[in-house]
Amino acid sequence: MPEASGAIAPERPEWTQLPPWLRRPIGKASEISTVQRIIKQRQIYTICEEGRCPNRGECYAQKTATFLLMGPTCTRSCGFCQVDKGHSPMPLDAQEPEKIAESVRLLGLRYAVLTSVTRDDLPDQGAGHFAAVMERVRQENPAIAIEVLTPDFWGGHPQEAAAVQAQYERIATVVAAGPVCYNHNLETVRRLQGPVRRGAKYERSLRVLEMVKDLNPELPTKSGLMLGLGESEAEILETLQDLRKVGCDRLTLGQYLRPSLAHLPVERYWTPSEFERWGAIARSMGFSHVRSGPLVRSSYHAGENA
């Protein structure tokens, strides 16, 4: 186990360029352009493109993609995320399940990840839409494996007990649709949740993963953290322990990269060797599948355990 080093020094260096280990080719242009053409023609979205993921060329080549459901506008305004924000997102596209099912077939995908913007404006937060997309994708692609990466499905309610029950029912809707893995990201440590994940709560997100296990103990659960936002080693370790307490099986650890000057600054670039060390620590704690590296993202190599 690492020694608790405390918070990172308050004087943050001004980074003028990325460290060399964060520079890599984006991937084959032909593989990227094929996916871009198909999704643009059908007016659907992928987090690979909306978030400009550095691994998208590699994932496309491995027949994996992550679709972004319910439009490109999120009702929350997280300090790290590049997806557009707004309080009046577009209505749900009733044809989206069909469009994504067709795209999966045309791309020849073996493994699809379905994620979404947060839609606090919808009565069920979009849980039913997740289920509808999964059903239609399977109808057209019977051999496909589908992982979900969901928001917390927290609509809020004057009475806490009623809100928790509604959250449980929404998660149950998605679990019943039969994903091969249920992912919900903590993103960062407890202390940094406020500035990093505006509108989200650390305990609430842990409860999502706990609810999934309550609904289906055999369904693998997964979560991810971004490092470099000012977390200490002691806080990382605490977060991994908290994830294991709610039965989280799989873990991704990656470097936070600032999308623009309007987003939170990078406080530290963790080195590849440090990521390797954290990956070893996570495996020693009982996580069954760990991806830890500077360019690792939530869905990186997601299909390897399918």
- Uncertain stretches: 3-14
Shape: globular
CATH topology of the domain at 24-226: TIM Barrel
Radius of gyration: 19 Å
Question: What is the annotated CATH architecture of the domain at 24-226?
Answer: Alpha-Beta Barrel
**Mean pLDDT across all residues, rounded?**
84
Structural class: alpha/beta
Total beta strand runs: 10
Give an account of the 3D structure.
With 306 residues, the chain is of the alpha/beta class. It has a domain at 24-226: Alpha-Beta Barrel (TIM Barrel). Helices cover 36% and strands 14% of the residues. It contains ten helices and ten strands. The chain has helices at residues 29-41, 47-50, 56-61, 96-107, 127-140, 160-176, 193-196, 202-215, 233-245, 272-284; strands spanning 45-46, 64-69, 73-74, 84-85, 111-116, 145-149, 181-183, 221-227, 250-255, 289-292. An eight-stranded mixed sheet has the order 1-2-5-6-7-8-9-10. The radius of gyration is 19 Å and the shape is globular. Mean pLDDT is 84; it is low at 3-14.
